[in-house]
Amino acid sequence: MKAIIIDAFAQRLCQRIAIATIATVGVSIGLTSGGAIAQNLREQQQSAMTAQTSEFQRIEQPLSSKILVTTGGLGLIGMELWWFLFSKPKSRKLTAQAGIQTVTITVDGGYEPSYIVVNVGQPVRLNFDRKDPSSCLEEVRLPDFRIAQSLPLDRTTAIEFTPAKSGKYQFTCGMNMFRGTIEVQPAG
Ligand SMILES: [Cu+2]
Question: Domain residue spans in the chain?
């Protein structure tokens, strides 16, 4: 049990580090290109300044754009840190309605909620509400339950199954890029 929790945590952390890395690269590129643009502007200005006389107006523009880029970059880094340190995976514990554990999962740039907790031996109904037009999310798979279901856009598609054993099961898009987890808790 402990091993499972650690494993899930490591997986989660791994995902986050990957996304954080991408975000960092994005910010770096933004800062670098911003700096390059600012420098370019300054060079242009300096050559223009030798020809013209109005100095003060011209020097202010590259400075302000530099400040803007730096502030934007720092803001993004702050948001990234906040997200990395404080945001938590959203999980949902289902309660049965008329004997079926039901949840609606919004499919829009991923799955929300992406972590679902159910009880063993009780029917589960996942209502996938697909709002994302990208073909990436047009199919959902639950390999452990031998389910592969296409999801029409702007519609809710129900998938039903009954987990016979406790454990953690993945559901993914057709290309295994987006993932969610169904945690099946043992009886009692
Ligand atoms: Cu995909």
Answer: 2-86, 91-185
